[in-house]
Amino acid sequence: MIGERLYDLRKDKGLSQEELGKILNINKHSISSYEKDKSEPPDEIKIRIAKFFNVSIDYLLGLTSIPNPYYNNQKVLALPNNFDTSDEQHIKQYINFLDYLHRQREQ
């Protein structure tokens, strides 16, 4: 899974394997090997990849489909699995409304 994710992240940034290798301080052959799932990067490299692309290790490993890093300062609210897209949109609108009210009180 990490190979597919790494490939997609690299392509989304418009980077070649060589460019990413320079950024991560590894050679392009390692990048190629990771993307083809021929080898797995050591933990230190996984951390560099996660930090550079601002994603979580869980996302890289395929444990979640949510790329957000775990170390961000945002609070996370888990929604029931049966919420559909329209429900999520209503919740986002309500959160924005509450944020607006909060900012009005601070003025």
Number of strands: 0
Q: Number of DSSP helices?
A: 6
Shape: elongated
Largest sheet: none
Q: pLDDT under 50 segments (min length 5)?
A: none
How far apart the termini lie comes to 48 Å
Q: What's the structural domain tally?
A: 2
- Listing every helix as H and every strand as E from the N terminus to the C terminus, the arrangement reads HHHHHH
Layout of strands and helices, then pairs:
Elements lengths: L1 H11 L4 H8 L3 H8 L7 H11 L3 H5 L23 H22 L1
Helix pairs in contact: 1-3, 2-3
Notable characteristics:
107 residues; 434 Repressor (Amino-terminal Domain); 6 helices; single chain; mainly alpha
Can you characterise this structure?
Helices cover about 60% and strands about 0% of the residues. With about 110 residues, it is mainly alpha-helical. The chain folds into 2 domains: about 1-60, Orthogonal Bundle (434 Repressor (Amino-terminal Domain)), CATH 1.10.260; about 75-105, no CATH class. Helix 1 (about 1-10) crosses helix 3 and helix 2 crosses helix 3 (about 30-35). The N and C termini lie far apart (about 50 Å).
